[in-house]
Amino acid sequence: MSTFADPSTFPSVFDAPATFADLGLPAPLVRELDREGITTPFEIQAATVPDALAGRDVLGRGQTGSGKTLAFGLPLLTRLSQGERARSRHPRALILVPTRELAMQVADALRPLGRAVGVFLTTAVGGVPYDRQIDSLRRGVEIMVATPGRLKDLIERGSCSLDDIAITVLDEADQMADMGFLPEVTELLDKTPKVGQRMLFSATLDGDVDALVKRFMTDPVTHSTAPPVATVTTMDHHLLLIPRTTSSR
Predict the structure, then answer these.
(1) What is this structure's pTM?
(2) Between the CA of residue 86 and those of 76, 142, 146, 186, what are the distances in Å?
(3) Using CA atoms, how far apart are residues 67 and 86, in angstroms rounded to an integer?
(4) Contact 61, 202 (CB under 8 A)
(5) What CDD domains does UniProt report for this protein, alphabetically (predicted)?
(6) What is the mean pLDDT of residues 192-218?
């Protein structure tokens, strides 16, 4: 039996919600958003949240600043708040990001919202001591925001298990591909249960990212807030030759 709320209680994406309350988010979460001055959903949030609340796999395409952190963060927090608390060393949701800086940004955005609904998170990133990350996992956190390399290290140390992961998010998936992280990402996803919700957000959804989608996602719904990135098919190169007497001045 699922420990999550019944998806049928959430609104349809076609209801055109005008506020976060209309999206079916819990009142404490809406109040915290309002306290932070966040009152109107961005396009990607209004489109994505209902499907994510319903447990669908989601593909989101949008540039930085499109509001995608809350697009996956709000339904993730909502679903986790209505389930069981995390066991020691067994987070229930994983957010994979390419850089430490992005991990901190995501954590800073979601941490106060999580406290409002009793959901706790930690980060697992390189460049900082292991001790605090290991201690947070030992005490039990629902959400792990991680870079692939540090998370792999924590798993190898026996400090973290992905056996209880019910929701996985890949943020900036195209950047992870560009940085050569996809082998580690694939290895980590293979350690999560095959059943569960997966959300992937990226500026582009082609090439290596598409391979991830085909392997790990089930009947995903796609939401986009930006036109496809144009591919340059022709380019002229011009060479300017400067006389030696001119270049030496």
Answers:
(1) 0.84
(2) 14, 5, 17, 24
(3) 27
(4) yes
(5) DEADc
(6) 92
CB-based contact 9:24 (threshold 8 Å): yes
Interatomic CA distance for residues 208 and 192, integer angstroms: 20
Other Cβ atoms closer than 10 A to 98: 21
What is the second-level CATH architecture of the domain 7-228?
3-Layer(aba) Sandwich (3.40)
38-75: pLDDT as tens digits: 999 999 999 999 999 999 999 998 776 678 999 999 99
At 37, the amino acid letter reads: G
Domain definitions of the chain by residue range: 7-228
For 149, other C-beta atoms within 10 Å of its C-beta total 13
> Beta strand pairing status for 58-61 and 197-202?
parallel
Quote the mean pLDDT of the chain: 88
Q: How does pLDDT run across 22-39, given as a tens digit for each residue?
A: 999 999 999 999 999 999
Least confident of 47-56, 63-72, 114-123, 193-202: 63-72
Cα separation, 163 vs 100, whole angstroms: 24
